Amino acid sequence: MSQYDLQDYLFDLRGYLILEKAIDADLLGELNAAFDAFPDLSFGEWWGNVQRLDNNGHAGAELQNIVEAGKPFEALIDHPSWIDRLRRYCGEDGTYVQGLFIDECFASIRRNGGYFPVHSGGQDGVIRNQFRFVNGKFRCGQVNILLALTDIGPGDGGTRILPGSHKSNFAHPVFARDFSERAKDTDETVEGSIEVNMKAGDALMFVDALSHGATKRINPGDRRVVIYRYGPTWGQTRYGFRYSQELLERVTPAQRRILEPILPREPGAARGLER
């Protein structure tokens, strides 16, 4: 019997999976309560070891390094709904560097008008976000978990994807336009793309090479998601964040191995002398 299942087939084919009811109601409630308690930060302002650092002015507020914001966010580091697949898809399973690293983690709040152009794709072969399957093994550079904390339906500013584009050899024609100009066009049409609708508690798992973006939010209220981007152990956080010692000492040993997969090597330390 093959070691692969239907989910592996669909991930390989489409570049994404929808994990229904990925988290339970208790954790969902704790995460939403944490969102309710977020301070009103200005762009670039720090809140402990969390910083508001919006990726695009049209996308909404983004609080980076969100794993530092409390226990509910720590629970997502190695959540059982996705951790085993992440280890196989982007953890370089079976090699001397196997394991995971969190490249980026942030909370996103999108209100009326928020939007982000479709970007990425397999055509550029960028190592950081590439999709590969070699010798019977997934070797993805980055796989993302987008966890919905609110229902995301038509008009809610949901994620837009181009299924199969992680294997594309050609850029979508829409990419020929300057990105800054595209960011102003909230009604951009991307032929072949689909909008992903989700219920609160569902998660979208997708390889970052998949062309993706966000539709315009036209409904009242907030679109709340948490995004954790995972890659192999030798990675480096996208914006250079460093985890606090308090967090590293508080999480479980398994979680710490994801946050800090390669320990610092310092003079006098015995690390690395094991045989």
Task: Sum up the structure in keywords.
single chain; 275 residues; alpha+beta; Jelly Rolls; eight-stranded antiparallel beta sheet; four-stranded antiparallel beta sheet; 14 strands
Layout: helices, strands, pairs:
Layout: H1 6-14, E1 16-19, H2 25-36, E2 46-47, E3 50-52, E4 61-64, H3 71-74, H4 83-90, E5 100-110, E6 116-119, E7 133-134, E8 137-138, E9 143-148, E10 159-161, H5 179-182, E11 194-195, E12 203-207, E13 212-214, E14 223-232, H6 245-250, H7 253-259
Antiparallel strand pairs: 1-12, 2-3, 3-4, 4-5, 5-14, 6-13, 7-8, 9-12, 9-14, 10-11, 10-13
Task: Explain how this protein is built.
By secondary structure, the chain is α+β, with helices and mostly antiparallel strands. The protein has a single domain (6-259), classed as Jelly Rolls, CATH 2.60.120.620. It has helices at 6-14, 25-36, 71-74, 83-90, 179-182, 245-250, 253-259, and strands at residues 16-19, 46-47, 50-52, 61-64, 100-110, 116-119, 133-134, 137-138, 143-148, 159-161, 194-195, 203-207, 212-214, 223-232. It has an eight-stranded antiparallel β-sheet with strand order 1-12-9-14-5-4-3-2. It has a four-stranded antiparallel β-sheet with strand order 6-13-10-11, with no helix packed on it. Strands 7-8 form a two-stranded antiparallel sheet. The protein starts with 5 loop residues before the first helix and ends in a 16-residue tail after the last helix.
